[in-house]
Amino acid sequence: MDTALNTKLPGIERRQAVIKISYSGSDANPNTPASYKKPLSNPMIDSYFLDKLRAQADIVFIIGELWEIKKAGSNYKGCCPFHTEKSPSFSVSPSKQIFKCYGCGKGGDLFRFVQDFKRLTFSEAVHYVADRYNETVIYERPINRTRSRFHDLDL
């Protein structure tokens, strides 16, 4: 995000100074949740935490916050956020916790929708959903490897 200032700076007369404002978390994407801190290494998110978050999170609630959908029978329908269309072909199933667009073919679970809609990585999408439910993301403990995985190979 660029912000222009109309103040005089030393050595600059009647020009605008441009200041770069960086976002917390990831500088590349302003949609990154504020609580997301880029890890030093590549730790994996705990699978039990992911299962718990998937069970707790409601796909209709999260998608309904980001895009307009209306109840149609047992599912929800709306125009697809990933391509332009006039008639609704985007469907959300609360019982299966999935979405599907029959126009462009996109589909998946809650995390895939957040990734595609907000253009986030999987880890950032998990942080986004966890923030919505006031959860703290839990990472697996790193495995200490004292020797190479190729140590036992005879070459």
TrEMBL record:
Domain annotation Zinc finger CHC2-type: ranges: 76-130
Record's protein name = Zinc finger CHC2-type domain-containing protein
Q: Which GO terms describe its cellular component?
A: cytoplasm; DNA-directed RNA polymerase complex; primosome complex
Q: Which domain of life is it from?
A: Bacteria
A Gene Ontology annotation in the biological process aspect, one of them, is: DNA replication, synthesis of primer
Q: Which residue ranges traverse the bilayer?
A: none
Keywords, alphabetical = DNA replication, DNA-binding, DNA-directed RNA polymerase, Magnesium, Metal-binding, Nucleotidyltransferase, Primosome, Transcription, Transferase, Zinc, Zinc-finger
Record keyword Transcription present: yes
What Gene3D superfamilies has UniProt attached to this entry?
Answer: Zinc finger, CHC2-type domain
What are this entry's molecular-function GO terms? DNA binding; DNA-directed RNA polymerase activity; zinc ion binding
The organism encoding this protein is Spirosoma endbachense
What cofactor does this one take? Zn(2+)
